[in-house]
Amino acid sequence: MPTNDEIYQKVQATLVDALGVEEEDIRHDATLQGDLGAESIDFLDIVFRLERNFGIKIPRGELFPENVVSDPEMIKDGKLTTKGIDELKTRMPYADLSEFVDNPDVEKIGDLYTVDMLVHYVSGKLSA
Amino acid sequence: MRWIWIDKFLEFRSGQFARAVKNLTLAEEHLHDHFTGYPVMPASLIIEGLAQTGGILVGEAGGFVEKVVLAKIPRAEFFGVACAGDQLIYEVRLTDLRAEGAVVEAKAFLEGELLADVEIVFAHLDNTRANQIFGPKNFVFTQQLLGVLDLAKAQERAKLADAESQARLNGLPETPPSA
User: So what's the architecture of B8-169 in CATH?
Assistant: First the structure.
């Protein structure tokens, strides 16, 4: 089982190849879309590369869930309700929601996709 | 002009590998503009040929049920140019295939030398979403493009039939046995 540092370095290399960014731009808390400029199609590319680089299987929607908050009861005034937050926690157990829950703006859900989120996810898969 | 950037499949192994040929000719309009006096096949059209070879490989692997679109080219390296009169060989290997899409490693060769090395990501358009955006018609696998694969299959069948009839002829004695 590789250490978290080793996983981080491999995730970093994965993102350099997938997004064409410089290694130094990749920080633990960098967001994939906001900081690293990932577009929707890049998520598919990242999934392919993580599977290849770590020898893991990533079922559809497990790493990057689709339609997380499709239920109207999960959103009120542009923010996630308690039910919505619970759903997010269930669907993305590897994401750090500690800051997000203070201001659960729907528009900020994309910011949960960070480099560290990928590291946590891969680490969980490798230790399973 | 027809948007077909491969002439023929030379080899097709379902779900694994495809090899296609593209002959370059001065009859192609674009060579006269790219560039005047120095007709060079545009790199983008070499990528298109590789993508068509790969797109059919990916589509065929799923029985042409999915609409396969070129989503991303993470890497493309070119090591030379191809001119009118040249023959390009495209080799495409399917490296990953999943419900959402596929990745291929694609190479173009000129006279046995590597000319281009490209990685291509294809996406399977979700049927519902694709229908909303593009309508139900499968715009990717047009009959024109799939005709290239049909032609290769027909040629393969003809070759097999020739080989079988030749084998039958070879198996027959030169003079019929006497009763």
Answer: Roll (3.10)
